[in-house]
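The methods section describes the discrete structure representation at length, but only in general terms. Since the whole study asks how a given chain folds, the encoding of that fold should be made plain. An entry of this sort, consisting of the sequence and the corresponding backbone structure tokens, reads as follows:

. . .
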Amino acid sequence: MTLLYSEVEEELRAAVRDLLADRYPPATVLARIESASTYDADLWKTLARDIGAAGLLIPEDLGGAGASAREAAVVLEELGRAVTPVPFLTSAVIATQALLESGADAARDLLTALAGGETTAALAVSFAASPYSATSQVTAEGGTLTGRVAAVAGADVADVLIVPASGALYAIDAADATVEPIVSLDLTRPVSTVTLTGAPARRISADLAPLRAALDAGAGLLASEQLGVAEWCLTTTVAYVKERHQFARPVGSFQALKHRLADLWMEIVQARAAARNAADALASGTDAATAVAVAQAWCGQVAVHAAEECLQLHGGIGMTWEHPVHLYLKRAKADEIALGTPGDHRNALARLADLPGPA
């Protein structure tokens, strides 16, 4: 096991970072959130097809790249660094992982469609659902699904919905569901309420094991997105305090600020180790549950702290709508409660490590 980035991973990072710097700088993200939809279909097509992000986790015999969670983590770091509004996490990671775990013929057909970037999918569970206690809110009867699921991420742009219902997993066409976007804290990742009324469905798993595996993988790789958010906040803040002057000195030269930024740097170094360990464990299948719990117990809080420090140390300009720091704070806050809170993961880690809770 190595937590260092391979040459292939660095090349993938460079490709994604160059694309986002050229096509989706922070000013573009700010402009998109004021439009009717933050989703940029052209950007997603380029990322999905030209770079191959949509099929990273899909085997080569199904048209994918046959890569691992390590490569997906690199992409998520860069997407977090740019708070990019694309459905990579929801479609190419979480929904794809659920389909991979099911192994059904219907799932293989969907994976082939997802690999080419022609189709996107979303797992129809609340984005706040914990991997340790996910439940179904939909019932299956006679080949149809009925029910309502709130706060589903990625449903607004999905072509296919993967729906847990009555102890099994089903796939439905999004056109057969009512998808109503709701107000989201994170404007770059909209969530929706999905309502099903007798929607025709095809079963892709007889149990909910693929659901739990998908949420676990999603939580582990979400840590890499949180790492990207935190790194942008630190880098941007350091650059700002070097050029912002007060009392004829750069404010970054003040000892109190140096200490705060040094402490934040140390937290982010630890977050990088935890996120990389989770990605490596998911790729190898070795003690993944513990690695995921550690990563999410730490990285969510670090991303929020980094965004809060970024906002405060930017002073008045950081409080304006025109500066992108609010996008990162909202993404960090939303990610902290996504796929299980840090507290959920700490409780799970205590069980995994066989440590008794407080009396």
Summary: Residues 267 and 302 are 6 Å apart (CA to CA). The chain has a mean pLDDT of 92.
